[in-house]
Structure formats: structure tokens, C-alpha cells
């Protein structure tokens, strides 16, 4: 994979909710209007909210196969998303946001995932950081970042490491001297950082774990696009090097506490991506069957579109996509309840904890089902098409490659075990995940 340290596209600091200027669409644009049977939207206002972003989604989808084949990173596409205000969805209206609920956010993520899951994954860390800001108890820190987010600034990932640090610690660390605070270390899976203004970093400060936001263009910061996965290849989920980076103490968050539903939130972004893949491949196979004029002599009709066995395949993958979307939306409502309980001054600690535990369990219960549905559908769609569908230029292989890669995060076998432990013994799932040496 070619390495690149190209700068991310700059984003105008918009202080309005005016519609973004989206480039004129090409002649071949896939319609991303909701399928008639995808189900009711998550809110009464959802269609009006989604109308702002669907032209952007359609434009992103139109070049998705070309980008995948050419390995062209979606700098421009992410700029469109930012300019349309998508990264400000959850911000309050007085901060130039849209006051979107979590079900509304995840409904739109499913639609964006149908366009290109690389883009969803590239803004995943940013969306999680927004939740950190919205729920933060530290008023000064919260207000500082609300202002930056309102101006369109974005955050990339810089938490995971591939080195020898033990579980629960980071090899990346801060040092303090008379010359100030310095950051040194290497991160992997730095998804979205190449496109962002800031990198959210986890580091050791002596015996303490701290979280800080570092400008992507700060001296000593290098983001390398060396991700070599067979799927999600355009997320720039590669390596970040921090070499004697001078740290402004204001970049360090006053506490290491994350938002209470962080684990299920980040996982549900992946599930929304999978649901989006399901919708895209279901639409794709239906369109290709409708247009196909070559038939097999041992088929069941003069036209493929009339062959009942082929229609059964199309129906099966549509059913999988429908179920994946419905389950994702159901789980998003559990996250909303956790968010609401966390901010409810009248709620007890027990009520907040119960809402958070339920959010964890509902997402854990969703993981294996959605994963199986979409992985199966991404293979079964080929049963409705001929060998020409396997051409790289058709782009149908990317559905399985992307779904398989997304599904490899936080293995589903552990989610099933956690659900069983809760159902049998009342054992709440862990609220904090880390990877490292034992």
C-alpha cells in the first residue's frame, strides 16, 4: 500500500446551517432514497433532516467503486460531509448544530454507510468525541470544545497501539521537565486522523492514563497511510508517530472519564456501517437483476427478473438488510436512554447505571445477528448474478471485504459470552475495552 502524509482537505469554519455546496452529480448516480420497505424513520422530523445530506450521500456513492479500485482516499468526500454539517449533527442549535437524537444520528449513519463505510469509519472517532463533550462534567473544557466543534473542527483516532504495552496501559507517554510537557509514542488504527484537525490520544502520564487532543499538524506529529487491510482500505487507519511533541497543558482533558455509553456507541457505529452495507448490496443486486438480459438455459424464465429463484435471492438479501437496519435502530434507542439518564439531574445513580448496562447488553445482543446477516448477504448476492459480477470494476467484492473487516473489531464471540453472562448471572458487560499484552 502506498504511503502518504498528505494534508487533509481544509474545511471552512461555518457558523451557519446553510446548505453546503455539493459538486454537480455525475450522470451515473445511485439513488440513496430509502427503500419503500426499510421501515418507519426514527422520528417525525427525520426525513426533513435527512434531505439535507442525501445529495451528499449520493455523490459519495457514485464514486465509491472507483475510489476502492484506485485506492483514492476520500479527502474530498469527507470535506463534503463536513461542509454539509454532518459532523455537527449532535450539537445544540445554538452551537450551529441540529440537536439530532442518537436514533436520528444512527439512521443517517446507516444511509452514509450505504454510500461508503470508509467515510463512516473515518469520522467515527469524531462522533465519539462529540459525545464526550456533550456529557462532560467539566464546564470549561466542555465549552472550549463545543466552540471548536461548532466551528467545524474534527477529531481523529489515536488510542490503539500495536506494540508490547500491557492491557490497561499505553506505551505512548508524556514526560515533564523544565522545558515543558512532551508526547512520545506510536499509535496504530489511527482511523480518520489523516483527514482531521486534531488527534485524540491516550497516553501514560506516570502511573496515570490521560487523554489529550493534539493538532494533527503540530511539529513532531506524523500520520502515515500504511493500513494494509483487505477491507476498509480508505480510512487511513494506519500509523501515527509522536516525536517530542510540545504539549499545551490545555490540550489535556482534566479527567480520564469517558461518556458512559462509549463502548456500545463505538460498536454501534460499526453495526450501522454493516446495516448500510446491507442496504447498498440489496439495492445493487436488485438493480443488476432488473437490468440483466443474459439467462441460463436451465433457468426458470425468459428474463432473469422473472426467475422465481433469483427473486428469492434478492428477497433474502433485502430481508437481511431490513433486519440489520431495524436492529441497529432499536439499539440506538437504548443509547439514547443512557444519554438521557446521564443528563437527568433527577435520576439516581442506580437508574443511570441500569440504563447504561441495558445499552451495553442491547448492542452486544445485536452484534452477532447483524454480523451474520450482512456477511451472509454479501456472499449470497452473487447467487443472483453471473460470473461478470465478480469483476473488480463491478465493486461487489468490497461489500464482503468491508463487512468482514468491520466485523473483526471487538470479536463477536466475546459479545455473545457477555450476553450469556448477563442473562444467566446478571453480570454487566465491561464498560471499558483495551487491547495489549497480558
Automatic annotation (TrEMBL):
- Tell me the first and last residues of the signal peptide: none
Has UniProt tagged this entry with the keyword Oxidoreductase? Answer: yes
Q: Which GO terms describe its cellular component?
A: cytoplasm
Q: Which UniProt keywords apply?
A: Monooxygenase, Oxidoreductase
What positions does the domain Acyl-CoA dehydrogenase C-terminal occupy?
270-409
Q: A Gene Ontology MF term for this entry?
A: flavin adenine dinucleotide binding
Swiss-Prot/TrEMBL GO biological process terms: fatty acid beta-oxidation using acyl-CoA dehydrogenase
Return the annotated region ranges for Disordered.
1-23
Q: Could you tell me which Pfam families the record lists for this protein?
A: Acyl-CoA_dh_2, Acyl-CoA_dh_N
Record domain Acyl-CoA dehydrogenase/oxidase N-terminal: where: 59-153
Top-rank lineage group of the source organism: Bacteria
Give the SUPFAM superfamilies listed for this entry. Acyl-CoA dehydrogenase C-terminal domain-like, Acyl-CoA dehydrogenase NM domain-like
- Which InterPro entries does the protein's record reference? Acyl-CoA_dehydrogenase, Acyl-CoA_DH_C, Acyl-CoA_Oxase/DH_mid-dom_sf, AcylCo_DH-like_C, AcylCoA_DH/ox_N, AcylCoA_DH/ox_N_sf, AcylCoA_DH/oxidase_NM_dom_sf
| Family per similarity comment | Belongs to the HpaH/HsaA monooxygenase family.
Tell me the protein's name: Monooxygenase
Q: Which organism is it from?
A: Paraburkholderia acidisoli
